From TrEMBL:
Keywords: Membrane, Transmembrane, Transmembrane helix. It holds the Pfam family EAL. PROSITE patterns: EAL, GGDEF. The chain crosses the membrane at residues 36-56, 100-121, 133-154, 166-190, 227-248. The keyword Protease does not apply. It comes from the Bacteria. Coiled coil: none annotated. InterPro entries: Cyclic-di-GMP_PDE-like, EAL_dom, EAL_sf, GAF, GAF-like_dom_sf, GGDEF_dom, Nucleotide_cyclase, Rev_trsase/Diguanyl_cyclase. One of its GO terms (molecular function) is cyclic-guanylate-specific phosphodiesterase activity. The keyword Cell inner membrane does not apply. This is Diguanylate cyclase (GGDEF)-like protein. Residues 609-862 form the EAL domain. SUPFAM superfamilies: EAL domain-like, GAF domain-like, Nucleotide cyclase.
Amino acid sequence: MIERRHSPEPQALPDAGRPPVRVGVEPERRRTFTGFSLAVLVAGIVVSAATSAWLPSEYRPELLIIGPLLALGFLLAEQLTIDVDVKRVGWTISFTEIPLILGLLTAPFEVVLAANLLAGLGTQVGRRAATHVAYNAGVLCLEIAVPFAVATVVNRAVVDAAPTWFGAAAGTLTSSLISCGFALAALHVLGGGVRGSAGARLAVRTLAVGLLNTSIGLVGYEVVISTLWGWVLVGLVAAGVVVLYRAYSGLMREQRDLETLSDVSLSVARSGQACPGPSGAEVAPADSSSEEWTPVAERIREQLNAKRVVLRLGLDPRGEVDTVVVGEPLPEAASGAGAVTLRECPLLQLPGSHVRSYRALDAPEDIRRALHLRGAYESLVVPLRGTDQLLGAIEAHDRVSRWRGFGRADTRLLHTLASHLATAMDNRRLLARLRYDAYHDPLTGLLNRAGFCEMTAEELRDHDDVVVLRLDLELLTSVSEALGYAWGDRMVMAAGRRMREVLGPEVPLARLEANSFAVLLVDHTETSAHEVAERLRSMIAEPYPLDRLVVEASGVAGYVSSAPADSDEAETDVDLLLQRADVAVRAARSGDDGVRAYAPSMGQIFLRRFQLVTQFRNALDTGQVETHYQPKVALPGREVVGAEALVRWSHPEYGRLAPDEFIPVVEATGLVDALTSFVLERALEKVRDWLSRGLHLAVAVNLSVRNLADESFPERVAEGLERHGVPAGLLTFELTESSVMADPDRSLPVLRRLRALGVVLAIDDFGTGYSSLAYLRQLPVDEVKIDKSFVLGMGTDLSDMAVVRSIVELGHSLELSVVAEGVEDDASRDQLVRMGCDTAQGYLFSRPLSEDRFETWLWARTTRSRGEQADTIPTLGS
């Protein structure tokens, strides 16, 4: 027959770690099932008593043999079973119809009933599953009483029209249906009822199995009573049937084991498939909640037919422990305050990864105590080990469906399950770490750019008024250069912690790159956002104690709202918001207050700069960039001795651009090499042209920091001089003190190699550098140019005049030629002549002129350089 094996139990979870998760049957349904069990027991007793009173019985000596044999038959039928799981209820396909039909044919009702009760209840007690004795006893009584009543009624009804065994066969079939019907009723009471069609299919299958068992028992009975040595034949057939059933049971067990392995692996994998979005909390990703592991533990319990399965997650000594319990609740002693803690429990001291089997009868004292706390007689325990740590453990307590307890098949299954589960958990941890790292900055644990953009996009879908605020921590470059990058990283981490303290744990905070941070403010006005920016800027600007040092820092902030006041629609482009906040930061860096809100005009300024950068190289190729020349005049004779090459850009959209507008942008983006090469090439071409026409004039070209850091620059200069056939003495390079001192270890060797070529080197804007006097003697230069700010102020400021005089005297004392820039009137020229200045340059003589206009000016005012003529030429001011 097919009978209900055991009912589902409430599933509880003990541990001193996180709060236990409880699932399973509700207390109300348990109480209902208890009442139902008592009703079944009463019905069984009443029907059995009525049947005993109705059916006559007589004592025969052979009953002393038949009774024990029937009890043994029922006992073997209970042990030689095939287990099947339907939903949360276990079903057992057994051979009880065989001893039942034999009892109907050979023994009175009381003997068969006693044999069935002895075998059935004895098996339940032996399995340590006697919690439903009332229900099982009632069903066992009905499984015998009703078949005897049906057999008697059928035999009396058909009389001689059917064989004598017909009534016994009919009664035996009703036993299977009774067991199936009460099992379905119990399942309905417990809240796990099946649909009518499924119940009907189960009843048909039950009847089919019962008919097969009944036929086997009946054929065996007829063979024994009608054939000499028939019992031998029956014994051989029975042995074959038993072997066949056991083989089929083994195949089903292997199939269910494979299904369980697949289900467990898929459950763990699917529960980790949902990709977590970025989180504002700066913590490592945690494992899934205990509820997600409950189906996994339940599936393991069902396959092992265990009374209880305990799944413990996170046994790393540094972490907390999640515990999931399915099946029978753990006793109070195992879940109360006096329970043995996880790492103290001997059951969980698990080196290696093998399954440990513990039995209370032969276990050491500490193991027996641990089992007693769990209310278990037997336990299988296996660790869940990942690649580098202990991930958890599985405990299975008391096998229900077999008398002998857990066997080798259960041990192998649990070991394989643990290996699959540990691998799946390890993969989930790795995947969670990869997902976390994809959205978080590894140094600070804050969101990174991708995480911040993702979270901002989510907030923009729900809110129209978010504010993106960017902050830059200043002076980090100097800290890293002086103390090392580790110290700069420590400042970044400290700044992140300070901002988190100001903002609280719920506000999204990100480190975008290097020393740049971003904050997302929801439901903030621009006024409140400005206040937050001020607080953050003030906090990160406080001194940073680094061991024995205290490092000063500063910060700048810029912010932009997604709902600007001059727009009807909210801005939902995250990248554009970040770009505008960065524009506001750049504006704040050039201002005085350090905090700026984005304004559309800022975007136009930076857009123009961006266009200049992207269009500059094309401007060089298309002739938009030209070389202009401003003459240098010797004092006091006012002979033209050279010119300074200057660049001018005639932009097709913006018109004539001032050098101060585009040259800093070009230098900042690395295009200054192309600009220097362009000016140098045009200057050498012009000097060659002048030489071919008899003019011996020098040309000065300005150099930048990047040129001085380029070790191949002297070779390029030498190649240009040789290619154009220009003497090196007619080429002057002007460089500022700051460009030289930015990296003197690299720039000085380049300057010495240029000087070795014969090129003239000049210090431009002399007098404005912080290290002028200290390094002037070390620089391989030929002349100094007095900054025009001092020359322009000579007529009104005695201090400027003193500075100019000092520079002239200093230059001559070092045997350097002195050039004065910014000469705009005769008085300044006369003063320079009296001071002994060598050369002058300024609007008094000429503004910078294009090539054609400069040559026109030159041929009208200069002399032939080959000594053919020595006329003095009047200046523009004459």
